[in-house]
Amino acid sequence: MSEVAQRLKEIQARVAAACARAGRPVESVTLVAVSKLKPAALIREAYEAGQRDFGENYAQELRDKAAELAGLEGLRWHSIGPLQTNKVKYVAKVAHAFHALDRLDVARELSKRRAEAPLPCYAEVNIGGEQSKSGLAPEALEPFLREVRALPGLRLEGLMALPPPTEDLEQARGHFRRLRELAREHGLSGLSMGTTHDFELAIEEGATLVRVGTAIFGERG
Ligand SMILES: *Cc1c(COP(=O)(O)O)cnc(C)c1O
User: Fold this and answer.
1) Nearest to residue 10, comparing CAs of 216, 218, 220, 217?
2) pLDDT class of 65 with cuts at 50, 70, 90
3) What is the DSSP letter of 27?
4) Is 159 domain-assigned?
5) What residues contact 45, with CB distance under 8 A and at least 6 apart?
6) Distance separating alpha carbons of residues 163 and 198, to the nearest angstrom
7) Which of 15, 91, 146, 147 is the most buried (most CB within 10 A)?
């Protein structure tokens, strides 16, 4: 078994254990393997081990990998990084979902380019209130979501966050819980939250997608 396949198996087991602790069916959580900055060969290994959902941060890298791996049937690309309007075309073309929606100009551009098959989207929330971090302030969600919901070509699925790194598990749990409450307040069921560091906690707090990179593909250079 390849190293990636082995790590993937470990993570799947940890996802299943977290689901069991939370009394949730394991199918209620999608494991997105974050492959940014990692070569296509490793994605292929993970795919051969059964992984289908992959996360990429950079639009051009996504475009290039999607072209290179176009033969892998059923592979789903999740675009999880901040996006500029001039790169929207790459995402609109190949993405199964976009997780970092926090700008109306980007939403409008995506909408224009995805008229046929609506793009599932997650609005990003700056849950830790960090300066110079992407994502919307919780107070800004209401008007933003209203505009996004009116756009054809996009399907608003839920909220996403990348909370500030912390060793304090209760603090991390608090951020995830807050995101879950915000999603509920806004009538959304999707929750994209949790990374290598804290995905089990995120699952316990209701994550429907976890985005795990390092634990599957190793440290990024
Ligand atoms: C890189 C990244 C991840 C994965 O982080 P790991 O710590 O490698 O698991 C998840 N979400 C986003 C938005 C990222 O940029």
Assistant:
1) 216
2) very high
3) G
4) yes
5) 2, 4, 5
6) 10
7) 91
Ligand 1 atom closest to the Cα of residue 34 is: 4
Query: What dihedral do alpha carbons 49, 51, 52, 56 form, nearest 10°?
Result: -120
Specify the residue for token string 């290598």. Answer: 196
Question: Does residue 219 fall inside a structural domain?
Answer: no
Under DSSP, the state recorded for 192 is: E
Of the candidates 123, 119, 101, 102, which has an alpha carbon nearest to the alpha carbon of residue 111?
A: 119
pTM above 0.85? Answer: yes
**How is residue 105 written in tokens?**
């100009």
Pick the atom of ligand 1 nearest to 160's CA: 13
User: What does the pLDDT look like over 131-178, one tens digit per residue?
Assistant: 988 999 999 999 999 999 999 999 999 999 999 989 999 999 999 999
| Domain range enclosing 122 | 33-187
Task: Report which DSSP code applies to 158.
Answer: E
- Whether 70 is in a domain gets the answer yes
What angle do helix axes 141-149 and 104-113 make, rounded to 10 degrees?
Answer: 20
Could you tell me the CATH number of the domain that includes residue 158?
A: 3.20.20.10
Give distance in angstroms: CA of 166 to centre of ligand 1: 14
Question: How many domains are there within the chain?
Answer: 1
Which of the four pLDDT bands, split at 50, 70 and 90, describes residue 116? confident
Residue 17 lies in a domain: no
Asked whether the beta carbons of 128 and 163 are under 8 A apart, the reply is yes
- Residues lining ligand 1, Cβ inside 6 A: 34, 36, 57, 80-81, 162, 195-197, 211-214
Rounded distance between C-alpha atoms, residue 134 and residue 59, angstroms: 16
